[in-house]
Write a structure and sequence with these properties.
By secondary structure, the protein is α+β, with helices and mostly antiparallel strands. Helices cover 35% and strands 17% of the residues. It has an eleven-stranded mixed β-sheet. Strands 8, 9, 17, 18, 19, 20, 21, 22, 23 and 26 form a ten-stranded mixed β-sheet that branches. A six-stranded antiparallel β-sheet has the order 3-2-31-11-10-28. Helix 2 runs antiparallel to helix 4 (78-87), helix 21 runs parallel beside helix 25 and helix 23 (773-795) packs across helix 24. The longest helix has 28 residues, at 232-259.
């Protein structure tokens, strides 16, 4: 029976079967004819008017490009949705960036600078007069104009006043992403199911994020007040910008409501009536933006967590090997500071953070078997009580409490010393999954104190968050350093009271009841549940356990908790041409961003890097890897619980650099001695795919935009296991002649694939079949088998299972992983490739720095290890394609290409075609500035 695609994190809002049947039963032509009479958004704008050509403040000289699939237009009327569902037609600019983005996978090998915009789009400021598609003055304002270009429909917002400029940004955002913005403000508030339907995926989504940030309305408002009060004139300006931005959003809501060209999802989910227009689209308010920010921050900018899982696996290792030896084994798998790990700052500079203390203090490790996860959902009724719904809740809990945040995003930046032009070149962008409509949206914004073009998360686009200014560009990758700690609060009186600085204190109960009923868009039967979180001064409760004979609750505290709005100041600065004028001022700007990101910069002369985040200063002796007692001696330095503020490490202690020869980042380790919360920063990491290629280019010199883009695109098709680990595995297998015919045939196929480059690449553009398809199938089947056979005998089943909870074994493209499940593009972020690589090299007698504490494959015997590999290889090779790729609701069983393919997951009513797998940023820039102010 075909498996269903896992619905993890953001795989939400698929068009249910009920909607499909509704479309089949309706008279589409009659229905559409009746719905086309209202003004559409496109026709609401005035006809194209001539505007100025390239802007005078653009110093890129035509060498800035970007791309964001599927397309700029993320809103669709009911008529457009019905046509898309029935006939596959696309609204204007809904998918016109999908094909060029997808085509790079087959076209990159012949890429030249002249051909870059065959696969990207010109990101120059302004719109040439002959490329203007529409011009409008939103709500009749005279102080702002929104021009959209013919090729992509991107809004170019120009204002003569600050208020008008931000009003235009809000209006344009609602034009392009109103439904998505509405979905995510409800996600951030834990109220998605009453708004969009009770599908199990929607239940899981709201549960995961509400557990992460169970805010009340007062909490959300307090965060706004704090951000404004603590940032002087810039805080006041940010508030004014937000108010203007919201006024623009709400003006569009009113206009689209009266004009009846609002997104059709409001009808399909029962919020509006298609005939009478009855119903309401709620206006946006300031606290909605904080709720939105909390979702984005949780997804991409909150490194840390997982301390309870760490403790369980440590205790498992100590139980098996004894305390001393077990700790060594655990540390060798943890790879806190692996000497073979690829680094972003690779000049040897050390930035110690969250390192292992010589004498740990305050550890609160649980008694074996005593840990229980804190329930979140109570009083289930109807469809909330199904097995599918409860299983989704369990998956959401596991993801929320793990340190393995699927960060994604990559960056390749080369200094001018090594380029053909003498100007730095950057190819970079965020890897945020693939959705319809996309989470990100493009815009250009020009006004007093604002001058930028690029991408922003929908509903937070008062500023460009990743993009380019007049003579500089910037981007980010998720960094993952640990800003989340787990505290053991000792219970007193009962299960809802705890000792806070010696006083028995009541926990605060935050709860919310959600109920839903079937709609046209989501036929899930009626249901309801109550979500409940107990909050303490040390954050929300996540687990219960026993420590040293005492009953405790484990809580999780992150430095950005109650500070979701603070980063707005950094983004404001990045958009201000009078602030960012150099790599130093760029670094100063991103220091104001409290989320955990790696930031990269390039102008015509310099490159730069900075790691952002509010890194708390921990008490001496506290090991950030494990829970500690909630006592003053182990709290963050100068921590104030009422505001959740503390001392943070100074900017100089964060990994940072200016004009290094090159930078790469793919969520790898930032710098020497800088510990990141996720596991897996060892000898093999997907960052190596970039490091190897960029280092080779820099060594040769004469780097161009095309050659750096080719390096990125080549890495995007590489199978990390095959490129970096498989040669060592084959070396063991071939250490003696392979006499078994089945094994020999598999070895030949795998060897041929390695020789061909170890890519997951189509035989030709559009073939929907891989070259070396059999070898790819064999490795996909073999990998989990060989890892288990290599490590489980030595570790034992319990410890092996505990270790896999810290770090998944595999993350192949076809696997259901990451924030978007299968078909998500991003792959090979987390896996046991480094462990296998180190262990196999040790078996081969090769030098291994930072090796595992014990040999595992065959107990260190080459002959025994070879037997294990050959036996599991034969087992994997015997699996059919249908077994390896069992199929889901997008793909039939055995369809390898489809199993890997990238799909824009529907968050609304419009669907797009799948594209061939690529492991690359969703939004991506290729930049090379020609001059500087």
């Amino acid at each position: 029976m075909p498996r269903r695609t896992p619905r993890t994190i953001l795989d939400r809002q698929r068009t249910p079967r009920r909607f499909t049947k509704f479309l089949k039963g309706a008279s589409i032509c009659v229905l559409v004819a009746g719905l086309l009479s209202p003004l559409s958004q496109a026709t609401a704008a005035q006809p194209a008017q001539a505007t100025a050509a390239a802007a005078a403040n653009d110093y890129c000289g035509g060498r800035c490009s970007d791309i964001l699939p599927a397309g700029q237009n993320g809103n669709a009327t009911l008529a457009e949705i019905l046509l898309n569902q029935a006939f596959g037609s696309q609204p204007a600019h809904a998918d016109d960036q999908l094909a060029p983005y997808g085509n790079l996978a087959s076209g990159y090998s012949g890429l030249t600078d002249a051909k870059i915009n065959d696969f990207f789009r010109d990101a120059s400021f302004g719109v040439p007069a002959d490329q203007v598609e529409s011009t409008m003055k939103p709500a009749g304002r005279t102080d702002v104009t929104i021009v959209r270009d013919k090729k992509t429909g991107v809004p170019h917002i120009t204002g003569t006043t600050r208020y008008g400029t931000e009003f235009g940004a809000g209006y344009a955002a609602a034009q392009d992403r109103l439904w998505l913005m509405d979905v995510f403000r409800h996600v951030g508030r834990g109220k998605l199911t009453p708004f969009a339907g009770g599908a199990p995926s929607n239940q899981g989504l709201e549960q995961e994020f509400w557990r992460h940030a169970p805010y009340t309305e007062a909490d959300l408002q307090a965060q706004i007040d704090s951000a404004v009060a603590t940032n002087g004139a810039r805080g006041q300006q940010a508030l004014a910008d937000v108010k203007a931005y919201l006024a623009g959003i709400n003006a569009y809501i009113d206009a689209s409501d009266s004009g009846r060209y609002f997104p059709g999802e409001y009808v399909l989910t029962g919020h509006k009536d298609s005939i009478t227009n009855a119903g309401t689209i709620e206006h946006f308010k300031e606290t909605d933006l904080v709720a939105l920010a909390s979702v984005i921050g949780a997804l991409f900018g909150s490194g840390g967590g997982g301390e309870v899982n760490n403790a369980i696996s440590l205790l498992g290792a100590q139980s098996k090997y004894g305390v001393e030896e077990g700790t060594k084994v655990w540390e060798s798998f943890r790879e806190r500071n692996d000497p073979e790990a690829v680094l972003t700052v690779h000049n040897g500079e050390s930035f110690p953070y969250a390192t292992k203390p010589a004498a740990p203090q305050g550890e609160a490790l649980p008694a074996a078997g005593s840990v229980a996860e804190e329930p979140l959902v109570y009083d289930r009724t109807g469809s909330a009580a199904t097995t599918t719904a409860t299983g989704t809740s369990a998956a959401a809990t596991s993801s929320a409490l793990s340190s393995a945040k699927r960060g994604m995003s990559n960056a390749l930046v080369v200094s001018g010393e090594h380029t053909a032009s003498g100007n730095p070149i950057a190819v970079f962008g965020p890897q945020t999954g693939y959705f319809a409509p996309q989470l990100l949206m493009l815009q250009e914004i020009q006004g007093p104190g604002l001058s930028a073009r690029g991408a922003s998360f929908a509903g937070l686009s008062m500023y460009v968050e990743l993009g380019r200014g007049q003579d500089y560009a910037w981007s980010a990758t998720t960094s993952g350093q640990d800003i989340i700690d787990t505290y053991a609060v000792e219970l007193c009186q009962d299960d809802t009271h705890y000792l806070y600085r010696g006083t028995c204190t009541a926990m605060e109960k935050i709860e919310q009841t959600n109920a839903w009923k079937p709609t046209t868009a989501d036929g899930t039967a009626a249901g309801s549940y109550r979500m409940q979180v107990w909050r303490t001064k040390y954050g929300p409760v996540t687990h219960r356990a026993t420590v040293d004979g005492k009953r405790v609750a484990y809580t999780t505290l992150r430095s950005s908790y109650m500070h979701e709005a603070d980063s707005i100041i950094g983004f404001q600065m990045l958009n201000d041409p009078d602030y960012v004028k150099s790599p130093q001022t760029f670094q100063s700007a991103v220091q104001h961003i409290n989320y955990t990101f790696n930031w990269f910069y390039a102008d015509s002369q310099h490159t730069a890097y900075y790691n952002s985040g509010d890194n708390p200063v921990r008490a001496n002796g506290v090991d950030a890897e494990f829970p500690v007692w909630a006592r003053p001696a182990y709290e963050w330095k100068n921590w104030t619980p009422t505001t959740n503020t503390a001392d943070y490490t100074p900017a100089s202690a964060h990994p940072n650099s200016i004009d290094q020869d090159y930078y790469i980042s793919w969520n790898n380790k930032q710098a020497k001695d800088y510990t990141t919360a996720p596991w897996g920063n060892g000898s093999v990491h997907r960052g190596n795919l970039l490091e190897d290629r960029v280092k080779k280019l820099v060594t040769a010199g004469g780097v161009t935009r095309a050659s750096l883009t080719r390096a990125m695109a080549d890495a995007a098709l590489a199978d990390l296991r095959a490129e970096d680990v498989l040669p060592k595995l084959l070396k063991v297998v071939n250490s003696s002649p392979v006499t078994d015919s089945a094994a020999a045939a598999a070895v030949t196929k795998l060897s041929d694939w390695v020789t061909a480059g170890a890519k997951r690449k189509e035989t030709s553009a559009g073939s929907k079949a891989y070259a070396n398809a059999e070898a790819i199938r064999i490795l996909d089947a073999w990998w989990p088998l060989l890892v288990k056979a290599e490590f489980e005998p030595g570790l034992g089943s319990d410890l092996y299972t505990a270790m896999t909870a810290n770090l998944p074994v595999d993350e192949a493209p076809s696997a259901g992983h990451g924030p978007t499940g299968s078909h998500a593009g991003s792959s090979f972020q987390y896996g046991w490739w480094s462990y296998v690589h180190k262990d196999i090299r040790a078996v081969l007698g090769e030098t291994v720095e930072g090796g595992l504490a014990k040999p595992y494959c065959g107990g260190g015997s080459l002959a025994a290890c070879r037997t294990i590999l050959i036996n599991t290889l034969k087992e994997g090779a015997a699996k059919t394609a249908a077994q390896v790729y069992p199929g889901d609701d997008l793909c039939s069983a055995g369809d390898q290409w489809c199993a890997d393919s990238v799909n824009q997951r529907t968050l609304g009513g419009i669907k797009h075609n799948k594209i061939s797998w690529q492991n690359r940023p969703t939004y991506q820039q290729v930049v090379e500035f020609a001059s500087h102010r």
